[in-house]
Design brief:
By secondary structure, the protein is α/β, with parallel strands linked by helices. The chain has 11 helices and 8 strands.
């Protein structure tokens, strides 16, 4: 849904020389922002959108694909798009990529038929107590461009920072996109601590981080909603959806509820559509393409705003 906006921001607006820009990505955001670091970001992001919209996994009729089938197909695509050009991603003159992943601990240290559901049940209970308690089960591991460190500390949650290299870019991005129970965990990402790595959104669903500690600059956050929810397991805890002082220098670009309601089925495309449309690949692709086409208006409005130099009314994050 954000693809046309991404293409304008990274392929045109921020394309030219300027101060360093840190790109933080978790889950599919890691693939988005890795694509933004390629020499022709506009084309790379367009390819990403096409890959994502048309993704299809061979499976028995009437039954969903297995985790292994999804992981093998998805992993092949990630490696084809990023593995062969990792040097280019990590040599962008302006952008610095930071890939967020979630590494399991204890029962979640390796994936298994019983240990994974039991481990995530324990993680859910721990997270209900506090975000920090979740860190006893799932650790944040960030693979960062070695040229420049993140401009703020990761002190809000148990974390490690490892070096992002051409050798581990594709595995790190695949790990960051590996949704538990939908894809296999990625074990032992090169350059990181041993363990099972899953979707970076588990620990950092919307990357609600300590941005206010930055010495200067703002954080621009193209997002699909105004709320910045800390972790995936926090979706049920509405009190954790509120803005905090950590976000005082964050500018969120999000569509209005009215615009979202105008999309096919009155909602944003999401993973549930795979179940809704089942074997009707053409139907899902048609709906997702229309949503992306509609989102071109968001990119056009933002482009007009930044080129006109006129002011804008902004609402405080709630």
């Amino acid at each position: 849904m954000l693809n046309p906006l991404d293409r304008f921001i990274f392929g045109h607006w921020l394309r030219d020389a300027g101060p360093t820009v840190h790109l933080l990505g978790a889950s599919i955001g890691s693939w988005r922002l890795a694509s933004a670091c390629l020499p022709d970001a506009d084309a790379a992001l367009a390819t990403l959108a096409e890959d994502y919209i048309t993704q299809h996994y061979e499976h028995e009729p009437g039954r969903p694909p297995t985790k292994r089938q999804v992981s093998e197909t998805f992993g092949h695509t990630v490696n084809a798009r990023l593995g062969v050009c990792a040097d280019q991603v990590l040599s962008h003159p302006r952008f610095r990529l930071h890939v967020f992943t979630s590494r399991g601990r204890h029962l979640l240290g390796r994936e298994g038929r019983w240990r994974t559901p039991l481990g995530y049940a324990a993680a859910f209970v721990a997270n209900a107590a506090s975000r920090r308690a979740l860190g006893g089960w799932i650790e944040r591991v960030v693979f960062s461009d070695p040229r420049d460190a993140l401009p703020f500390a990761l002190s809000d949650y148990p974390s490690r920072v490892c070096t992002l290299t051409p050798a581990n870019l594709a595995p790190a991005v695949l790990a960051s996109c590996s949704i538990p129970f939908w894809l296999d965990a990625v074990h032992d990402v090169p350059g990181g601590p041993r363990g099972a790595y899953w979707d970076g959104g588990i620990t950092d669903y919307h990357l609600h981080l300590g941005y206010a500690a930055m010495k200067d600059g703002l954080v621009l956050y193209p997002h699909f909603q105004p709320q910045v929810v800390p972790g995936w397991l926090d979706k049920a805890w509405k009190r954790r959806h509120r803005a905090t002082p950590l976000l005082d220098n964050v500018v969120v670009l999000a569509p209005t509820p009215e615009w979202v309601a105008s999309l096919p089925n009155g909602k944003l495309p999401d993973r549930a559509d795979f179940k809704t449309y089942g074997d009707d690949l053409a139907g899902r692709v048609r709906v997702w393409r229309r949503a992306v086409d509609e989102s071109r208006r968001l990119a056009d409005e933002f482009a007009e705003l930044v080129t006109s130099g006129r002011g804008v009314d902004a609402a405080a994050l709630a």
